[in-house]
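Because discrete structure vocabularies remain unfamiliar, we turn briefly to a single example record, giving the amino acid sequence and backbone structure tokens:
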Amino acid sequence: MQGLQQGIVCRRFSQMPMLRPRQKQLVDKAIVALKSQGNTLAVAPTGSGKTFMFSAVIRDRAPQKTLVVAHRDELTTQNQQTFLVVNPDVTTSLFNASGKSFDARVVFAMIQSVSQQKHLASLPKFDLVVFDEAHHVYAPTYQALVNRVKEVNPKVEILGMTATPNRADKKPIRSVFSNVCDQITIQEVIKSGHLVEPKFFVVDTGFQRELELAGLFADEKIADILNTSPTNEAVIKHWKEKAADRQTVVFCSTLEHAQSVHSAFVNSGVEAGIIHSLLGDKERKAVLEAYGAQKFRVIVNVSVLAEGWDDPPTSCVVLLRACSSKSAMIQMIGRGLRPPNHPQLIKNDCLVLDFGLSVLTHGSSLSQTVQLFPEKKCSNCQGMIDTAASECPLCGHVPRGFTGPRMRHQVAGSIDNFTMKELDQSNFPWLEVAPGLLMVSGFEAFCCVVHHDGKWFAIGAYGERAKKLELLVQGGVQTLCVAASNDFMNLHETNKTAQATKMWHTRPVSDKQLQLLGKSFVGNRYLASALLNLKFNSSTIESILFTASKKAFSVRRVVSAYLK
């Protein structure tokens, strides 16, 4: 069967990885909403694992035939690959420019291909449709597909996943989704260590007043103001002062503007690439690969890289636009928030250099209020309600038309001082064995997070008796190290072992553990397990830390402190 794949298993482990607790919460809510409402929208930012989550929903809905739709070919193939990590035994096929097969149980389709009339005519019955980047569903191509899948199967369930539900054109997506099952905020993902923290700099090059007068979203006018030699020189100067050592993505207003900015970087001696919509696929791929290999420091674009592109080494985002919509601003900034994906990569934050008005207009909070419905004000109680409502759900009054200004959903404040409820993001209990040394243990793996030489390091161990050790994060902040360790445990343990491990906190030390640790040990079974992992692997852990920092760290001293 054309494009059919089955049984791809992720490197080093055979079982499907566990979901993070917050991911599982969203998945459970989505399943309930699909069963009761027939559709639902789930909001989750970059770094939250959208593909893992909708793959888990699909797994729960087995053996339904499922269609997963994306608007870019890169997303289509990435979604398929990640899905097969979570569901290695499920057959999948692609429906895009290179292959067109509806044969598998789960079909990954690009909207430009599947929405063509000749393909809609041959569309089979699907029980579940998943829209990635679901804020696009208002587009005619998506509407045509939705109408067709409902025609073939009126009982089809529809799940949408998006990081930015509010469209810049304010057009509602209520026609497809009647409810929001859950919303993971970007602050939650930063707090849990699965995104780095953004640090904002609003830079006034002397044109802010002109930008305000030109209109917030008038790109052509904005380009005329920003696209001058003095402005470009100021951009380069500020970038060199604050971010010259960082991989950087630059968002411009127009193609001509992007070309001028690219030339300014190159003329100032900075290695830079440019990518735009007029480049062919091969050229675009070559530029992205060169940037990914860090052959140049800066990549300039208009809006091509705002969605579906991630490069974890990128730690600076430059906004050379007067003002983007809040959704677009979040998408662009999100390109630099991915945490380090390699132990040799040190990345603790992302600089955002805004030469326009985006941050001033929307604030530095990256939160969005989900707005499925256009709103109006009830003339009786003054509450904000859906324009389609025949009766105010707040006071029972029958409204008569729009009676007040549209509510602006904006969350004020800085990312530096947000408050939120504490969420347990680990399936395994963490233990502070000693000041600056945290441990998490399972049956097949363990991790230790160590504060050493003024920095944090994360080390993971897996395999038979957890004898294979590797550095996960070096020189990072504590939250990033803990997050990487949690994900490492999720890959190498199971839900069953996680539940069993949690019980060790309430159980006394075993006779075998006491024999290995000595009769002077006092503590529960979980602490004993952590100490034994340290004891048996002390030499390797010390060697890894010394190689990474060039300074010695004594694991033996930590263990011996418990055994006096």
Notes: Residues 21-184 form a domain with the Rossmann fold fold (CATH 3.40.50.300). The first helix runs from residue 21 to 37.
